[in-house]
Amino acid sequence: MSILHAKVIVNPVAGARTTYRKWARISSLLKHVGLSFDYEYTESVGHAVELARLAASDVYRYIVSVGGDGTANEVANGILHSTHPSETSLGIVNTGTGRDFARSLGLPQDYASACAVLNSSNRRLVDVGIVKFNCNGQSQQRFFINMAGVGFDAAAVETTEKLPKHLGGTIPYLTGLLLTMLRYKNKTVVINMDDRIVTKRVLNVVIANGSYVGGGMHVAPQAKLNDSLLDVVTIGDIGKFELLKALPMVYKGTHVNHPRVSIEQVKNIAIESSERLQVYADGELLGECPASFSLKPAALSIVV
Questions:
Q1: In a designed cystine with 135, which of 158, 207, 217, 287 is the match (CB 3.0 to 4.6 A)?
Q2: What total of structural domains would you count in the chain?
């Protein structure tokens, strides 16, 4: 089997359950660009991790994710937990609603253009984040490729996950964000960044590998996927009216000039709180603090 023979992992419910309908067209496009591949559908949350791990541990050295940012995260986790992580490349066809990792990479966001890239011989090595967190009383670990964090964003992800699945685009995230804004209360946290400890009251702490979150919010405009650093964006103790007023600034990346926003570049960060503080990564709710975040430089090969 050729090294370019790909395993395509398709999440049929991604993109408000539209990917199943799009797959026939995507499959045709992949054949048109000359990609040799087998494919398999995911059947549940977490299934793409196992499919990618088995494929990369077998004969496949090229795994393609067809789905949203969550699907790409699972496929990346599968590759990184396989027996051949450094020899396996990830291709991305984003059919999800956020498409933030594709934005951070500079990849095409429409699936037709993304398919045209997949037969490329160009590879880009990117850093991968590692988050450790608590879930049901157990310490767990997960890789993230774009963005993780604690606080308001994690609560918004939880709210968004409860919304009707037929909503598309950025509507679910913005709706979840506004609903969360009505009832969320800022938390006091202890942050240890590269052995410097700070205690403060915050709305949100974003740990960024990539630049974009929430369907195009330019939350970490200086973040680079290959600089061996995490960009920590801390939004301090701001009120709901002030947050609502500042929201358009986040899409432009100009929120970094707000007096209650700070950005630091670190290699390691740990966060804890006496209050319940949720943790998310790449748009998926994971668990709760205490949590720690670190980086694995140049750990994942992406087809570009």
A1: 287
A2: 2
Residue 133 and residue 100 share a domain: no
Is the confidence at residue 260, as pLDDT, over 60? Answer: yes
> In which residue are the tokens 């405009």 written?
221
pLDDT of residue 264: 97
Kindly state whether residues 117 and 141 are assigned to the same domain: no
Residue span of the structural domain in which 14 resides: 6-121
Task: State the average pLDDT for the chain.
Answer: 93
Return the residue matching tokens 């398709």.
10
The verdict on residue 1 lying in a domain is no
CATH of the domain at 204: 2.60.200.40
48, 81 contact by CB (below 8 A): no
User: pLDDT digit string (tens) for 197-249?
Assistant: 999 999 999 999 999 998 899 999 999 999 999 999 999 999 888 888 888 99
Shared-domain flag, residues 153 and 86:
no
Residue 164 has pLDDT above 80, yes or no: no
H or E element, residue 253:
none
CA distance 124 to 91: 11
CA angle 121, 127, 131 (to 5 degrees): 140
**Measured at the alpha carbon of residue 105, what is the angle toward residues 103 and 106, in degrees to the nearest 5?**
65
The DSSP result for 104-133, as a single string, is: HHT--SSHHHHHHHTT---EEEEEEEEEEE
Whole-angstrom CA distances from 56 to 8, 46, 52, 253 are 12, 16, 6, 37
